Amino acid sequence: MQYTIRELSRGIRDRSISPVELTHDCLKRIERLNPLLKAFITVTAESALEQARVAEREIYRGAYLGSLHGIPIGLKDIIDVAGVPTTAASALFADRIPKDDAQVVRRLRCAGAIILGKQNLHEFAYGGSSMISKFGEVHNPWSIAHIAGGSSGGGAASVAADMGFAAIGSDTAGSIRLPAAFCGVVGLKPTYGRVSTRGVVPLSSSYDHVGPIANTVYDATLVVQAMSDYDSGDPCSARPAPSLVSAFDEPPANLRVGVMRKFFFDDLHPEIAAAIEAAIKIFAGLRAHIRDLEVEVPTDRTLSSAEAFAYHKTYVENSPELYQPATLERIRSGANISANDALRASRELQASRFAIQEIFRDVDVLLTPTVPIPPPLIEELRQHPDQLRPQELLMLRNTRPFNVWGIPTISVPCGFTDKGMPIGLQLAAAPWHGVVLLQAAHAYEQATAWHKKRADLSQLVESKAS
Q: Looking at 9, 158, 170, 175, which residue is catalytic?
C-alpha cells in the first residue's frame, strides 16, 4: 500500500519511520522501474541519502521542520538544482549545470524535503505527451503501452509508481493536470504568481505555473504551501500567498458548482463522459448546488507561441540541430508573430483574467473533465507521428483555458475506463480562492475511493523480467 505524505510525516515526527530507510526504498524502486517507465533523467542518489541522514539527525534532536521534513520527492528537469544538470529533456541543454537552486527548490529545502533527482518531460515542456524527449518516451505505470501525458509526464509516472511521494512540475497549458489525470494521481496548478518560477526554464512566462503532483489533495496542498512565497526576484510573483492548509479545517458549506458543458464536454469519450456525470452526482449528494453555465473560452495561442520563440531565438539560430525536429517546428511557429500582435494578445490575456472573476459571483468552483480522451497508445503515435500534435491539442483542450485565466485548478481521479486507464476530474476556483477549491476537491475525494487505487507494479516487474 502507498503511504501518503500526511501519514509518513506523522511516522517521521514520532521517529517510527526513518527518512533514510524511506529514501532507500524510493531509490530501489527507481532502480527497478525506471528502465521501463523512463520517469527520471538524473537520479541524485548520494545527495538524496545525505539529505535524508541530515533530516534524520535534525528530527532526532527535536528540530522538526514540518510535514515535508524527510519526505522524498522528484523535480521536473526544467527546475534548476545547483550542481545538477537541467537538461529540459533536450540535447541542447545536455551540459547545462546551474550554479543556483530555483526558488522553489530553496523553499523545499527549507521545508526539509529530500530531492531524489530530475524527472523526464516533453522536450522543453512544449507538448502534452512526453513522447518527444532525448531520454525516451515516458510510459504510464497503469499500462506501459500507453503514454503518461505531459509535459510533466515523468513526475506523474513516478508518483503513480511509488518512486517518490510527490513531484514538482510546471503547467503552461495543462502539463501538471493532464499527466496527473492519465496516471491516476492529483495534479494542482495554483493561482498564477503564487509559486515563483525563478530558476525554472520558461516555456511562456505569461502562462507558466509551478505546482505539485501527489497521491491526495491534502498531500498536494502540503507541497504547494511549502513552495508558496512572494519572490521579489520574480516579476510574475504576485503577492504574499494566503495559507491553503486551513482548507481542511472544515467541509465546504453551501458549495456552488458550475458545470461548463459547452466546449469542455464536446466530443468526450463515452467512458469519460459517464465518469464525469457520476462525479456531478457525487457533488449533488454532498448537497452542493449544481448549475450549468457557459463561459467564453479563450483559444488563441499567439502570445504563448511568441514568448516561446523569444526565449529560444538565439538557440534556434545557432544550434537548431540539437532540438528534436518536432520541438523545433513548434518553436519556429512563433517566429513571424509581430510585436503588435503579441501586445494585442497580452492585452486580451489580461482582459480574460479580469472577466473570469465575474463568473465566480454565481459559483464557487467550476467543473469539467480534465482530458476528453483516455491515454493514447505509444506505438500508435510512433507509427503516425503526424497525429501527435493534433492528439496533444485535443488532450490539452480542457486544461489550457485555465492557464489563460490564471486561476487555481486541480485534477483528481474520478474513475477508470474499461481497459483500466485512469480518468481525471478538473475543478477550478477564483484567483486566490484556493481554499474553497481544495475543500471541494477533498470533499469529492473523501466521498469516493478512486484515489486509493494503485497501479499494479508487478506487471512492470514481470515485463522487465521477460
A: 175
47 belongs to the catalytic site = no
Backbone φ, ψ for residue 127 (5° rounding): 170, 160
Report how far Cα 62 is from the mean position of its chain's Cα atoms.
Answer: 33
Cβ-based neighbour number of residue 59 at 10 Å: 21
Show the domains of the chain with their CATH numbers: 5-465 (3.90.1300.10)
The answer to whether 195 and 224 have CB atoms below 8 angstroms apart is: yes
pLDDT (0 to 100) of residue 252: 86
Residue of 218, 166, 171 whose CA lies nearest to 400: 171
Which cell goes with 363? 459559483
pLDDT tens for 117-153 read 999 999 999 999 999 999 999 999 999 999 999 999 9
pLDDT < 50 stretches in the chain? 1
Q: Among the options 133, 151, 206, 411, which is catalytic?
A: 151
- Select which of 38, 76, 134, 189 is catalytic: 76
Cis peptide before 151 (omega within 30 of 0): yes
Say what the pLDDT of residue 1 is. 47
* Cα 115 to Cα 284: distance, rounded to the nearest angstrom: 41
The pTM for the full model equals 0.97
Residue 323 pLDDT = 98
Query: pLDDT > 70: what percent of the chain?
Result: 98
Q: Give the residue carrying C-alpha cell 493536470.
A: 177
C-alpha distances out from residue 286 to 51, 281, 289, 368, Å = 43, 9, 9, 18
User: Is 151 a known active-site residue?
Assistant: yes
Q: Which residues contact 462 (CB under 8 A, 6 or more apart)?
A: none
Instruction: For helices 270-285 and 434-447, give the axis angle rounded to 10 degrees.
Output: 100
Q: Which of 12, 4, 64, 91 is nearest to 328 (CA)?
A: 91
Query: Cα-flanking dihedrals φ and ψ of residue 107, to 5°?
Result: -65, -45
Q: Residue 80: its pLDDT value, please?
A: 98
